[in-house]
Amino acid sequence: MKYSKAFKEKAVKKVLQMRDTQSMGTIAKELNIPKATLYTWVKNTSNSRVTDGVLTLANKLQILKESYSMNDEALNAYCRKKGLFKHQLQEWEKDFLKAHKPEDSTAKVALEEERSKSKSLAKELRRKEKALAETATLLVLQKKFQALLEDEGE
Q: Does pTM surpass 0.70?
């Protein structure tokens, strides 16, 4: 069966948008096309062009690495080929740099406080579990002792 280019693009776009919530098989059933056909379309599209800004961090990093040393003319051609804009690359670079900045000291202090609180709660929980186990053991032994006394009394 022959599918229109617009239908293929819409199907691929749907797969890329719904990849985290739906499987490719489910989307293929909804569109009434074979899963293998849909897989081929997605594979061919992702190799040739970036579709609608749906990229993983690894893909963004790879694009930034490939385009890092290009001059303006080559960068413009590269962006056209990938279906991107220069400003997107600049935003990605800022995001990567921002993500790797050292955390501020207040966040570190709060994290350390939470860790110490967690440790103390875990320690208290272990202590209480041991006490509960000891109490249960004593109750069992007490019942056995009473049962032995009753047997001797008869």
A: no
Residue 68 falls within a domain, yes or no?
A: no
- pLDDT for 46: 55
The neighbour count for residue 70, using CB atoms within 10 Å, is 14
Give me the CATH number covering residue 32.
1.10.10
Instruction: Confirm whether 151 is domain-assigned.
Output: no
Backbone angles phi, psi at 5, to 5 degrees: -65, -40
2-19: per-residue pLDDT in tens? 888 888 888 888 877 776
- Domain limits for position 20: 1-54
Q: What's the sign of the alpha-carbon dihedral 16, 22, 26, 32?
A: negative
Amino acid at 21: T
Contacts of 88 (CB under 8 A, 6+ apart): 53
Are 48 and 81 contacting, i.e. CB atoms less than 8 angstroms apart? no
Quote the percentage of the chain above a pLDDT of 70: 88
- Alpha-carbon dihedral of residues 37, 38, 40, 45, nearest 10 degrees? 140
Would 3 be classed as within a structural domain? yes
CA–CA separation, 92 and 11 (whole Å): 27
The three-class DSSP label of residue 87 is: helix
